[in-house]
Amino acid sequence: MSRLEGKTIFITGASAGIGKSTAIELAKTAKVKLILAARRLPLVEELKKEIESKYEGVKVLPLKLDVSKIETIEPTIASLPEEFANVDILINNAGLALGISTVQTLDMQEALTMINTNVVGLIAMSKAVLQIFYKNGGKGDIVNIGSTAGQESYKGGSVYCCTKSAVTQFTSALRKETLDTRIRIIEVDPGMVETDFSLTRFHGDKSKADSVYQGTEPLVAQDIAEVIVFCVSRRENTVIAHTTVLPSHQA
Ligand code: NDP
Fold this sequence. Notes:
By secondary structure, the chain is of the alpha/beta class. The protein has one domain (8-250): NAD(P)-binding Rossmann-like Domain (Rossmann fold, 3-Layer(aba) Sandwich), CATH 3.40.50. Helix content is 43%, strand content 18%. The strands form 2 sheets. A 7-stranded parallel β-sheet has the order 3-2-1-4-5-6-9, with helices on both faces. A two-stranded parallel ribbon has the order 7-8. Strand 4 (89-92), helix 5 and strand 5 form a beta-alpha-beta unit. Helix 5 (108-135) packs parallel to helix 6 (158-177). The chain is globular, with a radius of gyration of 17 Å. The two termini are 34 Å apart. NADPH dihydro-nicotinamide-adenine-dinucleotide phosphate (NDP) binds next to helix 1 and helix 7. Belongs to the short-chain dehydrogenases/reductases (SDR) family. InterPro entries: NAD(P)-bd_dom_sf, Sc_DH/Rdtase_CS, SDR_fam. Keywords: NADP, Oxidoreductase. It comes from Schizosaccharomyces japonicus (strain yFS275 / FY16936) (Fission yeast).
């Protein structure tokens, strides 16, 4: 039987891409309870139907949640229905890049959206869920989705790279803080993955978004989802602390 059997797993950014694919991989693996959160509620409602009809015993709670609105996070967690209230695993996946820009021409509103989503939202989600972990005797997993952009910057990506570096430092400090517990803090850094990520970055311009992948063979969301499922289904004392997953052309 999978070690994930019966676990309650909260995924942010579950309406598309890596988050959606992770929900499906988890449902394939065990009879889990999934809290699927995103701003686009109809998409996570649709995903609930898809998962519950295909995977017997898996239960899904769709949630409308904008992680950048941090004042809504604790009330959302506090009002989870009893069946989903004891979160065992948090997957902090919600994130985005907006624009490619020099610093002098930066759209500060977009910069703030990236910082508030990728960093502040991830911190606030971690804080809220850690309170559940400690209430339950100090156990649980947090998986933070970083990026190779947090390891090495690129021209035009100053703010996005900065947010993903922040994810790495926050994750590392949190891992130190939870050393004497059974809380595992995991970071997965994807390289290039073909999702709606580029479409969002280029404000819906499909030809620009597609050009990012031309001449390359990017990963697909499922490649990252499989790694996340592997990390959270290890034996309790095994921590895949920080891992990078790249398409071969990027390795
Ligand atoms: P997608 O654009 O396909 O998915 C992004 C998800 O994040 C969507 O479900 C979106 O849902 C959600 N989201 C965005 N903003 C918010 C918010 N404020 N509150 C809640 N949910 C939000 O991109 P990916 O799946 O590729 O991205 C997932 C993660 O992977 C991100 O953290 C990204 O930085 C990271 N990553 C991606 C890489 C890539 O090449 N694709 C490479 C490295 C890292 P909704 O719009 O419904 O809210």
